[in-house]
Amino acid sequence: MDTSGPYRTVTGLADSAPVWMQRTFELWTGYGLWLFGVLLAAVWWRARSRGDARAVALALLAPAATAVAYAASEAVKSTVEEERPCRTVAGAAAPLVGCPPPGDWSFPSNHAAIAGAAAVALAMAVRRLAPLVVPLALLMAFSRVFVGVHYPHDVALGLLLGGSVAVLVVLALTGSAASGVRAVRAGGIRASGIRAGGLRAGGIRAGIRLTGPGPGGESFPEVRNVSGCRMP
């Protein structure tokens, strides 16, 4: 697939763009994925404070699906081994950022795959986020071409790969993940008022921190220790 023509067009626009626009795209392409991380954390925190086990499951699966999409993108990169356009396309403007070193392959774009997966997973967890996260993912993908480190087809198929993997992971695992959330919460409720050793008590508390207290509304179940083991 040859998209060197559109690549020259976009990088030409970037080269003639105002400095403030160039710097904005440089910042976004370098740090924009952190915003998706913040949104993933915020969705999880919101879900764990509510009683719906399915909402917690979707919130926990969102970063997991994003990680799987990244792994899939890396696997495709290692198989295809497409060179970066900033080294191979003649007549293109110089990239705004440093061209990645040889061996850091171009197809597909990891940034686009991660952004696409995170956007889809977040939208599946909280539908109201779709009008925010989908444009952000498209902007991340476009920025990779704008700064000169990817072909247009790298980012287009990166978005498609990431989004598709996210859908498959979330649809396949939501039921079992929700059951796991209910089991963790039920285990915490049963632990209230019974004796539990330090390791078991720590595991219960860690599970409740991850899933939230559930309908009971307690931050953590009261867990009493065996004699001689004090919990903080």
Brief overview:
With 232 residues, the chain is mainly α. Helix content is 70%, strand content 2%.
Could you explain the architecture of this structure?
The chain is mainly α and 232 residues long. Helices cover 70% and strands 2% of the residues. The protein has helices at residues 4-16, 19-48, 53-80, 85-88, 110-125, 130-146, 152-191, 198-211; strands spanning 195-196, 224-225. The chain has a two-stranded parallel ribbon with strand order 1-2. Strand 1, helix 8 and strand 2 form a beta-alpha-beta unit. The relative contact order is 0.15. The model is unreliable at 189-199 and 218-232 (pLDDT under 50).
Topology diagram in text:
Elements: H1 4-16, H2 19-48, H3 53-80, H4 85-88, H5 110-125, H6 130-146, H7 152-191, E1 195-196, H8 198-211, E2 224-225
Parallel strand pairs: 1-2
Helix pairs in contact: 2-3, 2-5, 2-6, 3-5, 3-7, 5-6, 5-7, 6-7, 7-8
Properties at a glance:
disordered C terminus; mainly alpha; two-stranded parallel ribbon; 232 residues
